[in-house]
Amino acid sequence: MSSKRSAEAVVIGGGAVGTAVACYLAMDGVDVTVVERGEFAWGTSRRCEGHVVTYDTPPGDFSLFCKTGQDLFYEAQDFLPVDFEFTPEGIGLLVDNEDHLEIVKQNFEGKKAEGYDVTLWDRDELRHRERNIGDNVIACLNFNNDCTLNPMRLCFGLAKHAEENGATILPRTQVTKLLTENGRVSGVETDQGIIATKNVILSSGVWTPSLGAMLGVQIPIRPRQGHILVTERVSGLLSKAYVEYGYLLTKHGVTRENVTPDMDKFGVAFVIEPSSAGTVLVGSSRRFAGMDIRPHPAVMRAVAERGTHFFPSLSDMRLLRCYAGVRPASPDELPIISSTHIPGLFVGAGHEGLGISLCLITGKIMSELVRGETPFIDASYMSIDRFGFNPPAVPAGETTL
Amino acid sequence: MFKQVSESTGKTVTIYFEGKPVQVEEGTTVAAAVLDPSHGWTRTSHGGQQRGPYCQMGVCHECLMNIDGVPNQQACLTVVAEGMQVRRQNGVPDFHQEDKNHG
Amino acid sequence: MDKVWDVIIVGAGPAGMCTAIQTAKHGLSTLVVDRQTEPGGQIFRSAGSSSMIGKLGKDYAAGLPLVKQFLNCGAQFEPGANVWDIAPDRVYYSQQGHSHFVRARQVVLATGAMERPVPLPGWTLPGVMGSGASDVLLKSAGLLPEGPVVLCGNGPLVLQAAVHMHEFNVPVSAVLLTGRMGNIMHAMKHASGILARPGYFLHGVNMAAKTMLHQKCVLGAHDVSISESEKGLQVHYATRSGKHRKLDASTVLLHEGVIPETRITRLARLRHAWDQKQRYWHVDADKWGQTSAPGLRTAGDIATVRGAAAAQAEGSLVGLDICRELGQLSLADRDREALPFLRIIKRCQALQPFLDEYFAPTPAMLQPHPDAIVCRCEELTAGHLGEVIREGSYSPNGVKAQARPGMGTCQGRICGQAVAEMIADAHGLSMENLPQYTAQPPLFPLRLGELVEMPSPSELM
User: Fold this and answer.
1) Residues of A with CB below 8 A from B91's CB?
2) Of A58, A83, C393, C460, which has the maximum CB count within 10 A?
3) Do C193 and C353 contact (CB within 8 A), yes or no?
């Protein structure tokens, strides 16, 4: 890279959100450069399961936001130049407690009213579809449009498509400083030279706070660790991805039965996904452990134990590897998609477990914010202003390229 | 394909490769024991290629076999035992198939 | 489970056995785990029980007294114990289908080396194996190929295999030597090192002479590939003058030198260094085996490949320094007891530059033919991986993320270095800047049920 470059916008971060932001900016005709310290999908995006989900939210605005975000993937599979193993087979939520059935039914009716393709299987139907399911699983709520994909191929595809639309892609480039002039963003200094720009988008997941701090912007994102187990290749174990319903309940304060002290301690909830390669991914845990991503046998064990509760046959499968990642968690579990009080500085981060699900919609909205347009869907409640840590952000529509 | 250059200890066990009895020296690894009866082909890869043990020391995982009904065992790290049932690991373990094997 | 060992040693090869002999002798409680059923490692494989012990030369015969000394030294030996995770103060292992974790004040990794995997077309065919595999079969089961055999590669172990084949009347179609002819010129600059180990050197010369005398040798063979034929296998190669030739074989043995098996040291997140001469990564440790993680040491070929004699001396030094650290030996006593071992290492080090130059890997061999399967588990060819690399992947982890090499059952042990060599070549990067695949637990595939049945180690977090 030459010592001096320029761009209309610079995206920092080559994960799912960063590459999606770059992709939409490029498609919208903005001269954009992506800076990534490693390669594409280097941080959390290569350490996650790759679900595009709508099940994760109670009916309401954010639920519709997720659905709109998911629709974009059905479009993207047509225009992205890379096969990202998009698998729109639906995701099922497994219920293992009679007491939860009432809440499940309410959720089912609410989502149906919002226009979701949802079905509810009873015990017999579930057993008919999944012969290896555990005896204690009594129902399954299916989100038939939910999908799985390969996040690493997705990031690569988004970066490639951005490049084909004129973006500059700079892997293995580390940001050392954010530059300002008269109070507004003027450039990005990297270990490969300076890029002059009036717009910088921080899409760096758990690393976003340290970048924001360079300009005195407080971005409340904490790393929340998760473990995923990967089995050897196997056939005939299961037909699609599942999540335990209890996972949603714990997020909303309902306690689960049948969990061990370790599962509680590590925030273990069951997630399973057959990968396109034939391996099976089993997750996951949810706890604050700093930036540590070295898997720990105690967590691996708890995740495996939870897995065998839902699919007892998992016991006979061999574990090939376990990896851990850190999700960028905001205090209220909503992402930050926002301008900031520094003109030209934007934040698209803090999606926690929804980084893949919401990467495309974040990219699309961010392109609108950067170009000074009003977002096509209300994202005002994702403004960084809601935390009250910083002076008020520059209002949407008042930023210009 | 392989020949014995050491004297026999006289202590042998019988194992079964694909159901056929094979007499081998005690203490031998399964990978060594089936070299001849398998013609070096001890598994089929998930893509359908014939493979056999490459390193004999636990590194390459090419020697994965079904031993006593358990799939994907490293034959080079498993010592033979009387009556052991050894089969090629053909493709990936199938969970429907496994259930049948376990009866 | 409450017991805390003074020392746990992973690997009962020459280095690990010698560490244990020292720590046990000085009164430290010592546990040795090894995934094989007998001590000895690969070089002294089955030395305690093999009927071949008197028939394979004095180097192998030296294993028997060592194994006996080890088994009587007072250390507890757990055979068939497959370690699947480690930390500076603990080891997790699987034995007969059950997992255990054990704690220690010091952990030593002495898990040795492996043959450098050099992919070439047809190397996945049954009947093709590492020359080291044949050596294991010979030592542990008294088996040799019936022949005809084609030996192909570079390094002293190719010559040793050729000698064994001759001594046991195994027909050899040819020995294809892939080393560069010019290596000897570079090596001679270090000829003075020969004086440090004249016996070892002459043994090597003797093996080479026997091989040249009794076997058809092809020097500077290249473009090697293997295919199936009616008779078994067919080896294709080009001679130094560029002529293409074919050979029939029932067994093909490949060998391109020996490299440390670093998956365990990467799993422990230890600092590594790149050896430019022998082109391998090795753990960065001092002569007492101390790595970048306090409490975690390495001994033997896992750190630097120098053979059994050096490994034994290194293992002894590591044992002595542990005795010092745990208060069993004063610094002065450690230094005094270390003297003979330091002398052995000095002699080995003196000859090493000569050997490193003489058997330096041939660069062209390290760039696989597009048809060669590089990742055997995931069945990925060099042609395919090359495309992914050129498309914009700049590191082994990057290629792994996009195309899956290293995600199969062997967990990247076989393809890791080959993939790195391809990236270095394609993008003009230096290997030093291409860190190896990140190693994740478990170290070996582990049954999930076994993990669940293990007592929870959560108090160790």
Assistant:
1) 235
2) C393
3) yes
Query: For residues B79 and B13, is the Cβ–Cβ distance under 8 A?
Result: no
pLDDT of residue B5 exceeding 50: yes
Q: Please report which confidence band the pLDDT of residue A42 belongs to, taking 50, 70 and 90 as the band edges.
A: very high
| C384 contact A CB<8A | no
* Superfamily the domain A92-144+222-329 falls into: D-Amino Acid Oxidase, subunit A, domain 2 (3.30.9.10)
Q: Considering the domain A4-46+152-220+332-387, what is its CATH architecture?
A: 3-Layer(bba) Sandwich (3.50)
A278–B92 C-beta distance less than 8 A: yes
Residue boundaries of the structural domains of chain C: 4-114+259-329, 117-256, 367-433
Task: Find the helix or strand (DSSP H, E) in which A71 lies.
Answer: helix A61-79
How confident is the prediction for chain A on average, in pLDDT?
94
Is the bond into C131 cis (omega within 30 degrees of 0)? no
B98 pLDDT higher than 60: no
Quickly tell me which residue has 């130049």 as its tokens.
Answer: A81
A18 in Cβ contact with A204 (< 8 Å): yes
Residues of chain A with CATH 3.30.9.10: 92-144+222-329
Domain C4-114+259-329 fold: FAD/NAD(P)-binding domain (3.50.50)
Using one digit for the tens of pLDDT, what is the confidence trace for C44-86?
999 998 989 989 888 899 999 999 999 999 999 999 999 999 9
**pLDDT number for residue C172:** 96
Contact between residue A272 and residue A358 where contact means Cβ atoms under 8 Å apart: no
Are residues C142 and B77, on separate chains, in Cβ contact within 8 Å?
A: no
C451 contacts A302? CB cut-off 8 A: no
Nearest to C9 by CA among C88, C106, C93: C106
Secondary structure of chain A: what % helix, strand, coil (to 5)? 35, 25, 40
Pick from B46, B72, B95: CB nearest A236: B95
* Assigned CATH for C367-433: 1.10.10.1100
For the stretch A363-398, what's the b/e string if a residue is b when 16 or more beta carbons lie within 10 angstroms of its beta carbon? bbbbbbbbbeeebeeebeebbbbbeeebeebbebee
| CATH 3.50.50.60 boundaries in chain A | 4-46+152-220+332-387
pLDDT at A3: 52
Please check whether residue A22 is in contact with residue A200, taking contact to mean a CB–CB distance below 8 angstroms. no
What confidence category does residue B101 fall into, taking pLDDT thresholds of 50, 70 and 90?
very low
Give the DSSP H or E segment for C99: strand C98-109
Query: Rounded to an integer, what distance in angstroms lies between the CA atom of residue A318 and that of residue A326?
Result: 25
3-class secondary structure, C331: helix
Distance CA A227, CA C451 (A): 15
**CB of A390 within 8 A of CB of A384?**
yes
What pLDDT, on a 0 to 100 scale, did the predictor assign at position A352? 95
Instruction: Please tell me the predicted confidence (pLDDT) of residue C189.
Output: 87
Q: At what angle do helices C382-392 and C396-403 cross, to 10 degrees?
A: 110
Domains and CATH numbers, chain B: 12-90 (3.10.20.440)
Q: What is the CATH number of domain C117-256?
A: 3.50.50.60
**Residues of chain A with C-beta less than 8 angstroms from the C-beta of B64:** none
SS (H, E, C) C189-243: CCHHHHHHCHHHHHHHHHHHHHHHHHCCEEECCEEEEEEEECCEEEEEEECCCCC
Buried b (16+ CB within 10 A) or exposed e, B74-88: bbbbbbbeeebebbb
Q: What is the mean pLDDT of residues B46-62?
A: 96
